[in-house]
Amino acid sequence: xxxxxxxxxxxxxxxxxxxxxxxxxxxxxxxxxxxxxxxxxxxxxxxxxxxxxxxxxxxxxxxxxxxxxxxxxxxxxxxxxxxxxxxxxxxxxxxxxxxxxxxxxxxxxxxxxxxxxxxxxxxxxxxxxxxxxxxxxxxxxxxxxxxxxxxxxxxxxxxxxxxxxxxxxxxxxxxxxxxxxxxxxxxxxxxxxxxxxxxxxxxxxxxxxxxxxxxxxxxxxxxxxxxxxxxxxxxxxxxxxxxxxxxxxxxxxxxxxxxxxxxxxxxxxxxxxxxxxxxxxxxxxxxxxxxxx
Length: 293
Hints:
The protein has about 290 residues and is of the alpha+beta class. Helices cover about 45% and strands about 15% of the residues. Strands 3-4-5-8-7 form a 5-stranded mixed beta barrel. The relative contact order is 0.07.
């Protein structure tokens, strides 16, 4: 039997509770307990951070592609524009100090001379193309990549050396393509390059614009499809016609009653003219005798 003891606060008795086992951290102070909790919380945060790092994709591949692209290019500043497709730069890598180099845009040709165009008109057209190039490059930093060696002009003993190249503005816009798009130069494909396009941020902007354009086209097609379906539905509703309501059935009933009344002469006896001179037939004579009898 379990031992009992009387309660001082009230009558009755209650069972004695077995002594509780001491907790393992009962001997620790409040400060020690706080340190243990903070340590456990720190381990939990470290685990969450490690899991996020493992799930977050690293942009290392994109950075490597950009780095590989920039290693193919040379950055420089434009000093002056020579003509509609040539501009002047300074080659810092040249031996014997800085020297002037003329950079000529590749895979392009001067503006064509139209039929019946005079020399003055053609010269004015070329001057306009030169101004267009100057508006793009005047005192601007650019990227450039030289064309393959077999497409470079022969080095002259005297004069400024010329390098045929593809060039880009600092934001990545392809200068060769810009001059063609602005109708200042014409296409003259002499060599192939995979970089004859916008690069860097200009390429990203171009891709973004293309995505927006495709989205707008998809939305436009969706709206046209919705409009077509709505027109077909309206057409089907018109062909189906409106249902005959109570008023319609009442009207049909009234018309039917009028037609039936007209056939029955509205219950009135028919007015027939009797011909007194007409001879009676045998049957009529027989019925007449019966009535007389």
